[in-house]
Amino acid sequence: MERAPNQPYLVAPGKPAIPELPDFKMTSSQSSTLSARIERWPIAGSFTISRGAKTEAVTVVAEVRRGGRTGRGECVPYPRYSESPEATLAALQAMREPLSRGLDREALQTAMPPGAARNALDCALLDLEAKTRGQRVWDLLGRPAPGACVTAYTISLASPETMAAATAQVAHRPLLKIKLGGHGDGERIAAVRKAAPRSELIVDANEAWTSGNLEQNLAACAKAGVTLVEQPLPAGQDEALARIARPLAVCADESVHDRSSLDALRARYDAVNIKLDKTGGLTEALATADVARALGFQIMVGCMVATSLAMAPAMLLAREARFVDLDGPLLLARDRDGGLRYDGSLVYPPDAALWG
């Protein structure tokens, strides 16, 4: 398939059957039309975590049109949560009928479960609301305007030598996120620290540690001056975190999805990673962040590897987050046109033409 510069490969959507849906009684002036598509964006090199490597980011984009205006949202279906691009596309297409009958963002929160599909549609509806009212989305929601902030930059999982070499290339960045994977992680983090003596380091184990090596790996991270370790144990098997003296902050990722999952994590984690693809959109992400802060958690705002369209809504969470990890576009071979502005590790709020 031919494609223009700075554009993804597109996968034409199918036409799955639309199930029976509840009757949303809204006026015809509120009806909307929905289109959705799968996009494929090449990654610069490869992106490797404990679950494997990939060379492209597969995203799903939703566009909602009403009154001559179009709102957009982008999501990343994640196999870890039994999501696929095709199933996500079908879930979005199934919302065409309720949208045409006036489904709004508030009703969407119960019409679809949390996850990637609802994220794309929630963000598209927010973008459309902002365009319709002629407001920036943070004013619409009564939230502080986002400003430029420092984002982490990710170092993929590899041998200690390879990771050290990759780290040396970006050692000028103030915040690095290091992917670890279990056996040999002590050597990996020591090599990374030697290559970047001045950078703040956060670590993401992606559920790869065990109760048997947990304390040893945490001690190695503490020795290397790591600030935070993300999801060291598998979700649902993380009870050991409540039984040990944690030498540094531990952050939940796969263990936390929306605000309903927070209370059970209080004894195990010090921070939570809020991602829009997990919460099912910015609407729930903001509510989750509010509850998390009230419960005493530090906030991390994270992302999947995706374009600036997926990062833009998450910028509304960044102002009050202790850690911002919105480097998805920096890991791509190219971003979409009109993407976020990155100046080194500083990322700036989106222009209205991109989102919100």
CATH architecture heading of the largest domain? Alpha-Beta Barrel
Taken from the alpha-carbon principal axes, the silhouette is globular
The biggest sheet amounts to: 8 strands, parallel
> Which structural class is indicated by helix and strand composition?
alpha/beta
Report Rg.
20 Å
> What is the terminal separation in angstroms?
31 Å
Main sheet strand line-up: 6-7-8-9-10-11-12-13
Low-confidence stretches: 1-28
Strand content: 15-25%
Into which percent range does the helicity of residues fall? 25-40%
In round numbers, the mean pLDDT is 91
- Annotation field: number of helices: 11
- Total domains, how many? 2
The number of distinct β-strands equals 15
Q: Would you give the CATH topology of the largest domain?
A: TIM Barrel
* CATH homologous superfamily descriptor of the largest domain: Enolase-like C-terminal domain
CATH class of the largest domain: Alpha Beta
SSE run: EEEEHHHHHEEHEHEHEEEHHEHEEE
